[in-house]
Amino acid sequence: MLLESDIKSYFLNPEKNGPLVLEAQGRTFNPFEWTKDNKSLLENNLLKYGGILLRNFNINSVSEFNRMVQIFSPDLLDYVYRSTPRTKLGGKIYTATEYPADRVIQLHNENAYSRSWPNKIFFFSVIIASEGGETPIADSRNVYKKIDSHIKDKFEEHGVMYTRNYTKGIDLSWEEVFQTEEKAEVEKYCKKNNIKFEWKTGVPELTTKQTCQASFVHPTSGESVWFNQAHLFHISSLDEDSRLSLIRELGEENIPRNASYGNGEPLECEVLDHIREVYTHEKIKFKWHKGDIMILDNLLMAHGRETYKGERKVAVAMA
Description:
Distance between the termini: 24 Å
Order of helices and strands: EEHHEHEEEEEEHHEHHEEEEHHEHEEEE
Structural class: alpha+beta
Largest sheet: 8 strands, mixed
Strand content: 25-35%
Number of helices: 10
Radius of gyration: 20 Å
Shape: globular
Strand order of the largest sheet: 1-2-3-16-7-19-5-4
């Protein structure tokens, strides 16, 4: 059970009622025993608030993080059908997305561009950047409520189609995304997950298309959440120089990734701007402390990354 002498609890953002912070008191605190004894408490609060930040839990290494995560969620996932580069740190622990430090990673739910996603995602702050590098979050329930109803209706009617073109030397290769060098394995994965695929000669080597959900009803809480990555995959998410450079080099139909409505109709830039504005309004940002562990219900809470300076390392696990 949760004892006041063991844990101090408060909200990171009281105005938005979350996420919940559980801060351990004292150097003798045993995080492994506590997690084992309080799994139901963690599950209940995660469902209620969407995110929990564990602070001062005496976790000092990636291996300890791995041990603790597996006590709470023993069935960790491999990162297959990737959209970003990551490095495996051992077991099923990965680095957070390896993206240039001067670029923002927009708020998103992990793997919402597919029909298969983790229910939970864990972050462990190993090295804190000298400046910036926060992992902002946003409640997907609130995002859903604040998107204009006519926009929401159209997305929910058609879904979102994600188009990916794989060209050697540009963005991720198909070998990295699918974690195989065998075309037969790629085809097997695509067929299993209702992904249309076409091998080509020249540029690109492979094109895939998949139509997925725009929103989702949480299977436990019954709450509606905004759950897609249209605003992230669409070409408008790139800065102007990168966008024009890719179009000049490849042609707009061959850029590495793009999004449209599920019926193939182009997404309107003003619609995507509105969605991004809602995410910005709902953003909750906090400073990492060394050793912090953040647990998110991946359906209820989106996450991103701010720009940073200096060295930064955050380990990630998905379950």
